[in-house]
Amino acid sequence: MYGKAVLVIATTVIILLMLFGNAKVRVFSVLVNQIKVFKNAKTEKLSWWDIVCFIIMPICLAIILTIGFRCIIDDDLASVLTTVFAFVFTVLFGFAAILVGKMESNNDIERKVVGETFVSIVSSTILSLLAAILSIIILETESEMAEKIISCVVYSFSFMIIMLLLMITKRTFLIYNDKDENEQK
């Protein structure tokens, strides 16, 4: 048991150094930009309702699922989630490449919405990648407390990704729907 604890600590330290020690892979700026997307379009101030809906409520739902309903992610679900998150990651990554072409629009509002949508796609991609990694970790975790914590984080990321995907879908519809309407006029 002592040897395994040392391996877990060493692995954690190495992962943290890899993710936070190298400026080329730090993704905090993307996540900070995602928070900036949660602004009220009219007032240009941070929308606390958006923060609640996109961050706080997903965390609350995850806590209710893991603690209240005791829905801990088991090995079967972790395997499925790993596949789902890998798929979401791949699809979003491809979609981001398609959306980049819309960033050269002459319409300032469209360019801003496309930029914000791009940030949300990248944020969802990062959350999907992290959730997939955590789902793999659950497969190897033997500690019940660790499984609860990781399950809560994976559920939180899942609900955040769902909310971001809904926002991305709506914004994409508006971007391309407005273009179609303008071309018809």
Strand content: under 5%
Low-confidence stretches: none
What is the distance, rounded to the nearest whole angstrom, between the alpha carbons of the first and last residues? Answer: 71 Å
Radius of gyration: 19 Å
Helix content: over 70%
The sequence of SSEs as H and E is HHHHHH
Structurally, the number of domains stands at 1
What can you see in these coordinates?
The protein has 185 residues and is mainly α. The chain has one domain. It is built from six helices and no strands. The chain has helices at 2-20, 28-37, 48-68, 75-100, 108-140, 144-184. The protein is globular. The N and C termini lie far apart (71 Å). The model has no long low-confidence stretch (mean pLDDT 87). The chain crosses the membrane at residues 6-25, 46-68, 80-101, 113-139, 145-168. Keywords: Membrane, Transmembrane, Transmembrane helix.
